[in-house]
Amino acid sequence: EPNVIALANQKGGVGKTTTAVNLAASLAERKQRVLLIDLDPQANATSGLGVAAVPGASVYDVLLGNARLVEKVQATSMERLFIIPSEVDLAGAEVDVARQDRYLHRFKDALDPLRAISHYDYILVDCPPSLGILTMNALAAVDGVMIPLQCEYYALEGLSVITQLVNRLRDSGANPALEIDGIVMTMFDGRTNLSQQVMDEVKTHFADKVYETIIPRNIRISEAPSHGLPVVRYDGKSAGAEAYRHLAAEFVKRSKAR
Amino acid sequence: EPNVIALANQKGGVGKTTTAVNLAASLAERKQRVLLIDLDPQANATSGLGVAAVPGASVYDVLLGNARLVEKVQATSMERLFIIPSEVDLAGAEVDVARQDRYLHRFKDALDPLRAISHYDYILVDCPPSLGILTMNALAAVDGVMIPLQCEYYALEGLSVITQLVNRLRDSGANPALEIDGIVMTMFDGRTNLSQQVMDEVKTHFADKVYETIIPRNIRISEAPSHGLPVVRYDGKSAGAEAYRHLAAEFVKRSKAR
Ligand SMILES: Nc1ncnc2c1ncn2[C@@H]1O[C@H](COP(=O)(O)OP(=O)(O)OP(=O)(O)O)[C@@H](O)[C@H]1O
Ligand SMILES: Nc1ncnc2c1ncn2[C@@H]1O[C@H](COP(=O)(O)OP(=O)(O)OP(=O)(O)O)[C@@H](O)[C@H]1O
Ligand SMILES: [Mg+2]
Ligand SMILES: [Mg+2]
């Protein structure tokens, strides 16, 4: 069965999509079979992998019970990397899904059959910057949450919101298996004290949950999406690509240890 | 009557809060009376001005009709700058407000009396990174929307979503007075081509809506919030402080011209 991980953090712009896309691509490079599900109406992970956002292609129908997840899977330009894209309909999901029965478990009900029949090693789910119905559906369905954390003060402030939510969902029985897979420090800028201060603070409170791999601020990472490529394909020798390859290695090691 | 402006963009981490806090502070420095309303449950604008997020202090009660906006106004450490803070209750507002009558106009109904009695020159409203009920309430109530835009590809992709929404709200009569006050380029990094490419693209499509003032990526801007100070107070001589002072001057000029 696949290991299913959500990339979630209600703070905006912390590197959720960048980590989802580049971790998925780095895992595919390591011969892992990976499915990336874009649950964000912004559809950044979709365009970041060079896939068009076509109306009807997203999980929207699936959440309303009118289609199965397996039908939405598409190939990407990378071998072993597949995607269920987002598109504009998904923006209506927050309201439309809220009116359904089991409205927080629609995604889980759809994912369980896919887990059983698929031969993916990993399924990654990119979430929007909010704790609304789409993110809550993801958290109710996955095995673990990877929390990208920008090395900035405002991002640090919001960290306890998402970590406490994960603990509440597990302890309340909404998702008994849910755990924090880890916290990944992103956009680390070694030239400033701020990045180091934020990282020290996070390590004090979350110790072994913090990934050793640190993602540096790297211009090639932010250029790659405009080419529809993950950074490991756009500039495979860049510091950004190397960092995400290290992250993939550490991620595999951690997920096997569980 | 005050000029009421929302800082909105569904893309996360583009500088909405940073612009709300530092524009408000720069206007106060220019002897303008300013009220900043924090509509984001993350409460970053609240902590960015050194104000505690106390349960019951936000607009939450107001949106449910149990209090008036004027009761929630607090002073800040800066003369002529006032705030209505956010706090954790506000996270429940999306769901609780959705069940009320006129659920998209609760904020407007609350703001109109404040407009009539107050002697503010400007009211700025910081919005969360989504187009949910809190942001929609803000867009239905304000005179104009300032759209901070990070000089990055993903941010560029989402620009038409917010600009088209503003046009739809005006043309549908939901807020007949609503217009785009302007687009402010933020975190501009002159050392990379990406920033320039994004800016050129925005200017091609939005020409005179783009503010001439460009906010550079500046470490002092991101350090200031950890001290609970706007950058004009944290490091008044920094490039970041200067940029926001220029923005305030251009903002006043544009708002007077309308
Ligand atoms: N390590 C990095 N170095 C440089 N730029 C980065 C890095 N990581 C992300 N970025 C850029 O920062 C911006 C924010 O990242 P991204 O969009 O992945 O964050 P997000 O958390 O998914 O945002 P949202 O909250 O809107 O979903 C993007 O423009 C991205 O290209
Ligand atoms: N010009 C700048 N130079 C350097 N850092 C900046 C600049 N503007 C904003 N930042 C930093 O970038 C991060 C994102 O900015 P900010 O939180 O203001 O964006 P936002 O759009 O309000 O985010 P959200 O979508 O979560 O509400 C913050 O940590 C902030 O300190
Ligand atoms: Mg994203
Ligand atoms: Mg903000």
Question: Descriptors for this entry?
Answer:
homodimer; alpha/beta; 7-stranded mixed sheet; 11 helices; binds adenosine-5'-triphosphate; binds magnesium ion
Describe the structure.
Two copies of one chain form a homodimer. Chain A has 258 residues and is an alpha/beta fold. Chain A is 43% helix and 14% strand. The first copy, chain A, contains eleven helices and seven strands. Chain A has helices at residues 16-29, 44-48, 60-63, 93-98, 106-117, 133-141, 153-171, 193-206, 219-223, 231-234, 239-257; strands spanning 3-7, 34-38, 74-75, 81-84, 122-126, 144-150, 179-186. In chain A, strands 3-4-2-5-1-6-7 form a seven-stranded mixed beta sheet, with helices on both faces. In chain A, strand 3 (74-75) and strand 4 form a beta hairpin. In chain A, helix 1 (16-29) packs across helix 11 and helix 5 packs parallel to helix 6. The radius of gyration of chain A is 17 Å and the shape is globular. The mean pLDDT of chain A is 97. At the A-B interface, helix 2, helix 7 and helix 9 of A face helix 2, helix 7 and helix 9 of B. The complex binds adenosine-5'-triphosphate (2 copies) and magnesium ion (2 copies).
Tell me the helix content of chain A: 40-55%
Strand content of chain A: 5-15%
Which compounds are bound in this model? adenosine-5'-triphosphate, magnesium ion
What's the arrangement of strands in the largest beta sheet of chain A? 3-4-2-5-1-6-7
| Uncertain segments of chain A | none
Short description:
2 copies of one chain form a homodimer. With 258 residues, chain A is α/β, with parallel strands linked by helices. Chain A has helices spanning 16-29, 44-48, 60-63, 93-98, 106-117, 133-141, 153-171, 193-206, 219-223, 231-234, 239-257, and strands at residues 3-7, 34-38, 74-75, 81-84, 122-126, 144-150, 179-186.
